[in-house]
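Milestone M4 deliverable, item 7.
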Amino acid sequence: MLEVLHREFIYVWYYFTVQLRQIAGYWALGMVIGSLVSVFFKDTIHGAFAGIKDKKWGVWGVIPASLLGVASPLCMYGTIPIAASFSRSGMRQDWLAAFMMSSVLLNPQLVLYSTALGPTALAIRIISCTICGIVAGLLLHIFYRDKPFFNFEGFAPRPSRDTNPNLFLRFLFNLGRNIKATGLYFLLGVLLSALFQRYVPAEDFAALFGEANEGFGVLMAATIGVPLYACGGGTIPLIREWLAMGMSMGSASAFMITGPATKITNLGALKIVLGMKRFVLYLAFVMAFSLVTGLLVNLVI
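Output delivered:
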C-alpha cells in the first residue's frame, strides 16, 4: 500500500513540477505588471473614466466605459467603492454598469495570466469580457433608463494602501500583497491540473466538454464556473489543462465568464449593491451571456 501511494505521489509530483515550470513565468509576469498598473496607472485609469462623465456620447459611452473597466486593476471589493463615488458625482448608470461588469471579469493582471492559454483564448477572453460590459450597459439603458439600478448607500472609497513616498517600496509592498492574495490559489490550481492529468482520462473529459458535445459542454462549463472559481491565477492552470484534454474553446469561454462574475467573494458585495431582484437579474444575465458566447465561439472557432 505504501509503495502504491509513493508511486502515485511521484507521478503527481512530476506532473505538478512540469505544469509549474510551464506556467509560473506567466503568473510572475502577471504579478509584476498588475502591481505596476495598480501603483502607477490606477489613478490615471479611474481619472479617465471620471473624465468622460460630461461627454455627449449618449448610450455609446458604454464602449469606452467597458474598455476602461478592463484596464482597471481593482477587484470587485475595490471597484464598488470607486463606482459609488462615480455615481455620486453624476455618472450615468449604464456607463457605470459597463465599467463594473468588465472590471469584474478582467483586469491587466488576469490578461497577463491568460497569455498562458495561447493567443486564441486570450483574444476571446478580452473581446468577450469587453462585449459583456457593453451589453450590460445597453440592457440597463433599455430597461432601467428612468429607474435606479444600484444602491451604493454606505459604500465609500477606501483609503489606498499604496502611500509609501518611495515609489519602489510602494511597488514592492503592492507586489507582496498580490503574491499573498493569489499565490496559494495559483499553486492549488497547478496541483488540481496535475491531478486531472494523472487521474482523469482525456477521452472522457473531451466527450463531456469537447466539440462533439458542445451544447451540453458549454452549459456544464458555465455551471461549474459558479462554485469552482476562486481566483483568476488559480484557474489558469486548470483551463490550460482542460483545453489540452479536449475541452472546446466555447466551453472554456463560458467558464471564463461565469467564474469571475459569480466568484463567491464578489456575490456578497453585489447582493448589497443590487438588492435581491436585480441580483437575480444579474445572475441570469451572466449565465445567458456565457452560454451564448460559448456557443458562438464553438460555431466560429
